[in-house]
Hints:
The protein is mostly helical. It folds into two domains: 12-65; 66-103. The protein has four helices and no strands. The relative contact order is 0.08. The model has no long low-confidence stretch (mean pLDDT 84).
Amino acid sequence: MMESMKQTRKRYAKEFKEEAVRLSEHSDLPVRQIAANLGLHEKVLHRWRREKQLSQQAQTRFAPGQGHPRDMELIQLKKENQQLKQEREVLKKAMAYLMPKPA
């Protein structure tokens, strides 16, 4: 009988992804050459670069690991906490402006 030939996706460490993207951004070599030197397909490195750019725009972490729901929740809570801190500062300033000054 023929066994199922299921391909498994290769997983890379967060540090490896970050370093590969950094190399591709700061090197004079073409992305294709850097990917080949690292044993990657060119499309993988391009995808990581795109993911990093999107994570910077969304102010989230690049290559957060396995993407556990707990990690995603933590990221969301940190964003929400930052937003609440900013709102609190605005309210403090508004209150100071609106409160009558003691004579």
